[in-house]
Amino acid sequence: MTDTRRRVKVYTLNEDRQWDDRGTGHVSSAYVERLKGMSLLVRAESDGSLLLESKINPNTAYQKQQDTLIVWSEAENYDLALSFQEKAGCDEIWEKICQVQGKDPSVDITQELIDESEEERFDDMSSPGLELPPCELSRLEEVAELVASSLPSPLRREKLSLALENEGYIRKLLELFRVCEDLENREGLHHLYDIIKGIFLLNRTALFEVMFSEECIMDVIGCLEFDPSLPQPRRHREFLTTTARFKEVIPISDPELRQKIHQTYRVQYIQDMVLPTPSVFEENMLSTLHSFIFFNKVEIVGMLQDDEKFLTELFAQLTDEATDDDKRHELVNFLKEFCAFSQTLQPQNRDAFFKTLSNMGILPALEVILGMDDVQVRGAATDIFSYLVEYNPSMVREFVMQESQQNDDDILLINLIIEHMICDTDPELGGAVQLMGLLRTLVDPENMLATANKTEKTEFLSFFYKHCMHVLSAPLLANTTEEKPSKDDFQTCQLLALIVELLTFCVEHHTYHIKNYIINKDILRRVLVLTASQHAFLALCALRFMRKIIGLKDEFYNRYIMRNFLFEPVVKAFLNNGSRYNLINSAVIEMFEYVRVEDVKSLTAHIIENYWKALEDVDYVQTFKGLKLRYEQQRERQDNPKLDSMRSILRNHRFRRDARTLEDEEEMWFNTDEEDLEDGEAVVPPSDKMKSDEDLMDPISKFMERKKRTLLQHAVKDSEEKEVLSGKASLSGRQSPSFKLSFSSSPKPSLSSPPTASLHPGSPGSPSSPGTGARSSPPTAAVTTKGGLVGLVDYPDDDEEDEDEEDADSKEESPPLSKKSKLSS
């Protein structure tokens, strides 16, 4: 049975300062020959694999926390922790660590970090640097241990770097390497491997400049061939000197530039091939090496860019018909790599770089190259073109518009790109996908410029639809002349899918131009032929295209769809799909659901009138029944438009939250002059004793009662702002203003039936009274006929309201009274 005392979880601290669980295993301490010292080993309990192998360094600060945790730092940015299942196991390992470091196990931290750093600072101030052992064959092991022990501490790394620089130690080590190699001293070569690798991890630019110099770099690569973990040494130097060859497509006259190119290639090779993949301990320790390569590339691009003679010769040979194919292939590959190097430049320098290439005539040169038969040359030219489009699409657009004034459509640069896309021989159409992405960038209005004098969007899109769109759509039109695609193989369908996707993008972003093109060329009908394809991805592309058009809710498109019965292929595809629950099924249902939810009236009527019989049996979703209901509601409203207008009024005001706020329509209603309503014209026509009209009267009464309450509340508010003379308060037939009606204590009575206690004796007790007689009083508790009792809403804060003001307000209420009487007649 495994001892649970040694059962631990291994944790590492990530960049977000959070602990990541690396696994559970059992810890032990043992001497590891490779690490030359006592080490902590953790093997996974699941498969016995090694989770952790960490040498107990004498200068590393280990800390015990909470009796079951041991925490330490392996490198500057790499912290580790062991979490023990039992305290006894933690104490055992802690004693081993303290024994190696010569510390008392009773302490909770083996090294005082502050004291150590202070001591190192004093040492740093008092001594010029770290003292290195003599560079002798017998001391290589000592040097290797010194380098390894210095890496965890930033101050010791700094001292070691200064010592290596000041004493010219690297060159001495490389001399020893040549001696060891001549003597075939494997042990010494293995030590030199560890030393040179450790120097790389010091991350020091000054050391790199020595190591990567012309006289040292091959010996440095030689040291890194003898990895102790490999049974046989690598052959990196052999590859660099015999296999890898430097080609000067255009002779480089500057020796410094040539040397810089050689150096960059070799350092890149060291980074990618020679140095082992950095472990979690070392992943942040090679940043200076990346920077060294980066700045070398920047320098190379700058030196080539400044050499006008070189670039002039390059473009002259590229476009010269006498240049042989092999030479042209090398020239294009050089230009491609040149552009790839430019990606390392800062934005300002990259601007200058591409401006230089543009001035040298890179676009006309690409046009010539793309017209050649060599597939590899065309592929490299496409990569160069992609760099230009991604950097500055406006520059490319301006060039193609200018050349259209001089050349035929067949040899325009964009048409060459489209033709290469269509004729891509790759079964997976990798090149076509890349070219389609470039075309999308070029026709995207989001990256087009607009100035005071011209609009790039208008000019370029007019050019594109006039000169290029017919080339793009040619495969689609050629393949959709019948009810089914004439060619339905996988490669053709992939190409058509790419074309339809680009057309869908145009529908979304180009509106005017693409609308004219679709309607004039009947493009949608042709695209919908693809729904009959055996390849589902192509049928879905066609459905997406139509869905994008319907989503615009443009009546021009809708009339075009209805006139040509373009839902027919969609319905056919849906029915042919049967009961299968797949993407085609979902896409078609979603399209019809969109028409229903958005209430696209013209399309709803068209679908039901033409395709209802085919769709009425689909009951696993309610989409088609919902469409039928929408259609019937439309027909009902068309048959009775006045009924529709009243329903819209009720619908618009059903959910009013604040009775004191009136919308514009209500204001117009209540502000209408009384004379306008008393000229004999009824707001609602007299009842024809139809059942539908009688059914409506009850909600109308409720609605008008609420409007009356709103009016009365506003009347009280308005009366406070008017000056009323007390002498004008006496009106014939007026009741005492002390007879007030209060609705404040009854919860929402006016929306159903008014409370009888607050009604005037002459008013009806039910809101259905309009159906009992034409001249009966309106169903409101606040108002009677003109000249009779007028009651106001009695708010609690209006107790001291002046009676004269109430008398004056009664005049303001008579117009709504007449309106109400008219409604109820």
TrEMBL record:
In residue numbers, the region (Disordered) covers: 672-694, 717-825
Gene Ontology terms: cellular component: nucleoplasm; protein phosphatase 4 complex
Record protein name field = Serine/threonine-protein phosphatase 4 regulatory subunit 3
Q: What does this protein do?
A: Regulatory subunit of serine/threonine-protein phosphatase 4.
User: Taking every annotated instance into account, which residue ranges of this chain make up the domain PP4R3 EVH1-like?
Assistant: 5-101
Ranges of Acidic residues composition bias in the record: 672-681, 795-810
Give one GO term, molecular function aspect.
Answer: protein phosphatase activator activity
Q: Which family does it belong to?
A: Belongs to the SMEK family.
Compositional bias (Low complexity): 736-779
Task: Using the record's annotation, list all stretches that form the Serine/threonine-protein phosphatase 4 regulatory subunit 3-like central domain.
Answer: 142-633
